[in-house]
Design a protein that fits this description.
Layout lengths: L1 H4 L3 H8 L7 H10 L2 E2 L4 E2 L3 H14 L3 H18 L13 H18 L5 H5 L18 H9 L3 H4 L14
Antiparallel strand pairs: 1-2
């Protein structure tokens, strides 16, 4: 951190320990490096927007294997943060991924004991079952049974079928 901001390690230690005489200009540089900007010091690094854009780009490229990995990364990062990182709808053209992300967001909310973002609460349950892995290869009935048995209830409610272990839980 000290090197990336251009301050001494001692300055970072003083700042972290709450020393009252640290230079404000240097504090602002550290805060900016951490994702804050002046005035008002609001967060400029929106992880949810980054995640949504990653899904849009990946799905546009039809890289469904990587998109499945992104579901796991989204779940893992959200659990580590203690809240769903997609506070706003990712607004995907792929309705299956839109519903799946809503279901995963609801699951994250239940795991972190946080409110479900409104966009995820409002999503309608599709009549067609969503097995995202079928975008990569055919899924046989025995495998679908296994997936159904290991899918969390929040996903089942939206007819989305992903094994809990595929969510990359921490």
């Amino acid at each position: 951190m000290a090197n990336s901001v251009g301050v001494s390690r001692k300055f970072i230690v003083d700042l972290e320990s709450g020393k009252e005489t640290v230079a404000l200009g240097l504090v602002l540089r550290v805060l900016k490096r951490l994702g804050f900007e002046e005035p008002g010091l609001h967060i400029i690094n929106d992880r949810g927007a980054e995640i949504a854009e990653g899904f849009r780009e990946t799905l546009e490229a039809e890289d469904f294997e990587f998109a499945l990995r992104l579901i796991s990364e989204y779940a893992t990062a959200s659990l580590a943060e203690g809240r769903p990182l997609l506070a706003q709808s990712p607004e995907l053209e792929d309705w299956q991924y839109q519903v799946a992300l809503a279901a995963v967001t609801k699951w994250i909310s239940s795991q972190t004991n946080t409110p479900v973002p409104q966009w995820a609460a409002d999503i309608a349950r599709p009549s067609e079952a969503v097995f995202l892995s079928e975008k990569l290869y055919p899924v046989g009935e025995k495998m679908k049974e296994l997936i159904r048995a290991e899918t969390p209830p929040e996903l089942r409610e939206l007819n989305v079928w992903i094994r809990q272990r595929s969510l990359g839980t921490v």
